[in-house]
Design a protein that fits this description.
Helices cover 42% and strands 10% of the residues. It is built from 15 helices and eleven strands. The chain has three domains: 73 residues, no CATH class; 91 residues, no CATH class; 156 residues. The strands form five sheets. It has a three-stranded antiparallel beta sheet, with helices on one face. Strands 1-2 form a two-stranded parallel ribbon. Helix 5 crosses helix 6 and helix 7 packs antiparallel against helix 8. The longest helix has 18 residues. It has 377 residues and is mainly α.
């Protein structure tokens, strides 16, 4: 039986399955059978609010009519309709498009006045190249680059072509959005260490973290130690840690000690993140620092030490047979946790540290090029 079905049955039969906290469901335009069953079960136990983009009589929302009627029946008349805000648009053409999209008999449209232009090209890159040329024309006509925005459905899917096209045409830009923890370099290293400690993983996961620039260990020494373990055929969890400590003259691994000394999973992740330094140019370039030495204080602390996504993911335990702790945090939840994209500058590109404008969209905003950092030496 799937976990969702088990959750629904528990909500219907177990009084302790939910503590009565209100539920707010946002971002759904359709509901699966399991999701609908979950809403029904929760609505019998707590106050449930569902937000749905719908307006009667609009062709653009015709596909949502059935789910709106089902939710209205479940709400028993407790429906709050928000007024339309299309009149707030500064462009009449945009307001007309929003109100009458897909309508069979729309009223006469106002003059476009350059508010809307349609581009047609082959593939995502071809489309972005046309958009980039339009940006260059606008910039050449005097429009500041920081007043131009490209809105895309998913920054995750469009990041690569955006960077390729805008970078090739030397258009300075910044990316505004959120990235999943597992898509960041730090997140990949952190999850590898947590899989080793909490999910009984082996040498590959432990050394994936140790080899990362966030561990504080010299890369050359990590490669040497893993090479010794490979030569001996050591790959199991307990033997990997034991043999690594022996090769380190009995010194334990500080990241594992930090995880094990914490009072709970949330505290463990926070302690590890707080003790992890953001890699600097000098730390990446250094080859003389001794393996196992603490990161320099000037390297800075990781922004993930206070990330709400990390805290939420680490606070969702579930059973795991064979685990030393018996229970371990939801690694899948941590992988899906999002974090702000860290600031990065290179070749005129600047990734600005901010949230996306809406949960379902992201934007790439042109900006003035950042100042180049002086090269050391």
């Amino acid at each position: 039986m799937e976990e969702r079905e088990v959750a629904i049955r528990r909500l219907r039969s177990d009084l302790d399955a939910w503590d009565g906290r209100p539920v707010f469901a946002y971002g759904f335009e359709d509901l699966t059978g399991a999701e609908w069953g979950l809403l029904e079960a929760l609505s019998a136990r707590a106050e449930v609010t569902v937000s749905l983009p719908y307006e009667p009589g609009r062709a653009a929302f015709a596909s949502l009519r059935r789910i709106q009627e089902d939710l209205a029946a479940l709400a028993a008349g407790r429906i709050e309709e928000l007024p339309s805000r299309s009149t707030e648009s500064g462009q009449p053409a945009l307001a007309h498009l929003e109100r009458h999209l897909f309508a069979d008999d729309p009223p006469p449209a106002p003059a476009l006045d350059g508010a809307i232009r349609f581009f047609e090209a082959a593939g995502a890159r071809g489309t972005l190249e046309l958009v980039a040329e339009e940006i260059r024309e606008l910039a050449g006509a005097g429009t500041p680059l920081d007043e131009i925005a490209i809105v895309v459905p998913s920054l995750e899917r469009w990041r690569a072509p955006l960077e390729t096209v805008l970078g090739t045409l030397r258009i300075p830009f910044s990316l505004e959005g959120r990235a999943r923890l597992g898509q960041t370099a730090y997140g990949q290293a952190l999850l590898a260490l947590l899989r080793f400690e909490w999910q009984q993983a082996g040498r590959r996961e432990l050394y994936a973290y140790l080899r990362s620039p966030f561990s504080g260990f010299a890369r050359s020494n990590v490669d040497f130690l893993e090479g010794r373990l490979r030569g001996r055929g050591v790959s199991g969890r307990d033997t990997v840690e034991e043999e690594t400590i022996k090769l380190r003259d009995g010194q334990p691994l500080p990241p594992l000690e930090a995880l094990r000394s914490a009072t709970g999973p949330v505290e463990a992740v926070r302690a590890l993140a707080a003790a992890t330094s953001t890699p600097t140019r000098s730390s990446r370039r250094s080859s003389t620092r001794r393996f196992g030495s603490a990161p320099p204080a000037s390297a800075g602390r990781s922004r993930f030490s206070t990330s709400p996504g990390l805290a939420r993911g680490a606070s969702m335990p579930f059973s795991c047979s064979g685990s030393r702790r018996g229970r371990f945090p939801g690694a899948a939840t941590l992988r899906r946790s999002s974090t702000r994209t860290p600031a990065a500058r290179s070749n005129g590109r600047h990734e600005r540290d901010s949230y996306a404008r809406t949960p379902s969209s992201a934007s790439a905003t042109s900006s003035t090029p950042p100042a180049r950092e002086p090269r050391d030496g």
